[in-house]
Amino acid sequence: RTAEVRGDPRVVRVLDALAVRRGRETADVAARAGLGVAETSSVLGTLELEGAVARPDGGWVRRPGSR
Q: Of the candidates 30, 1, 36, which has an alpha carbon nearest to the alpha carbon of residue 16?
């Protein structure tokens, strides 16, 4: 399933919109990725389950090596 998710262009856009150290709000990630907030939230949830992103202090960050 991970390979399927990684092949999704929305996933690539969301990962590209995230930083490793600086947390971003969902709306900011959505704007940077060119996606809607609901769609971005869904993608972030999937990526969080996979361990590719985290939300340590309320802002989304990409985990190192998750690209």
A: 30
